[in-house]
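One example given next:
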Amino acid sequence: MDKVEVSGIRRIFDLARGMTDAIDFSLGQPDFDVPVPVRKAMADAVESGHNKYTVTQGAPELRERLRRHLAEHAGFRDGAILVTAGSAGGLFQALAVLVEEGDEVIVPDPYFVLYGHLVNFFGAKPVILDTYPDFRVRPDTLESLITPRTKVIIFNNPVNPTGVAYTREEVAAISAVAKKHGVLVIADEIYSAFSYDFPHESVLRHDGNALLVGGFSKTYAATGWRLGFAAGPADIIDRMAMLQQFSFVCANAPGQLAAAAALDVDMSKHIADYRRKRDLVYEGLKDRFEIVRPQGAFYAFPKCPGGRDQDFVKKAVEQRVLVVPGSAASKRDTHFRICYAAPDRTLERGIEILNKLARA
């Protein structure tokens, strides 16, 4: 635990709870509610008595529906599926059963804050792959970091915090490096629905031995339901399920039936709305900030004008705009993260204030 630190994102989130009329761009959760059919399915599951434990692997109805969904959208053919307590639960269990003291795990930087802390927690070593300035993993750089101790590559697509999404050719090239060296890819594809400029490309279409982690928190705005899944080689999934027996036990039981219903709900209108929000934020900031145009997820990662991230974030907070310092998700302290999952008027107010700070 000495190697684990409090999340910088959570610090800002906790600060927001004590402020009134704050413009909150901190925590990554959608601003729309769970769709009505999914809420109804949850209520029906509760009322019909689906409130007891499921089997550890997850309700058969959900696993079968996930298998069909992943076959269509991710090319999943062989292997097993485990329903987890959120995608974070899946990542925790995956690293718990895969890495040991002395193993190395390649983590592209910037990264989701959980990755490095989990690798450290289980005694392995995070090997940082610097992706600045355009935030893209390049196969030659990736290959240069692989050693005999490399056990896992964590590959997030689309990326939190940068908003980068990878093309088919890029995913194929990264997968080829992993397969050449016999290194397992953990593909965190929690934002797979939020790919704005081209279709999402799953690692599983190029590497059938990869382990995919996903969930329902982002696409269906069910962050508090804690429902995720892992799909991949049966021997890995079986070990994760064994660990789940003695940790999380099983995922939210009525929520699992609601999640099965969620996979039949069309979310395209919400995705289109977030594509428009992406454009609103990028166009609103690009003249004052150095910023890579996001292609997916719902984050932007501008460079701080004139100094360190902590200084700029402090000035933003003083203006009641809550953003996350980039150093919470990177070894560098030069950028900050915006979550643009917010109403348009809130985005417009926040953009105006951030631009004023940049001018100053």
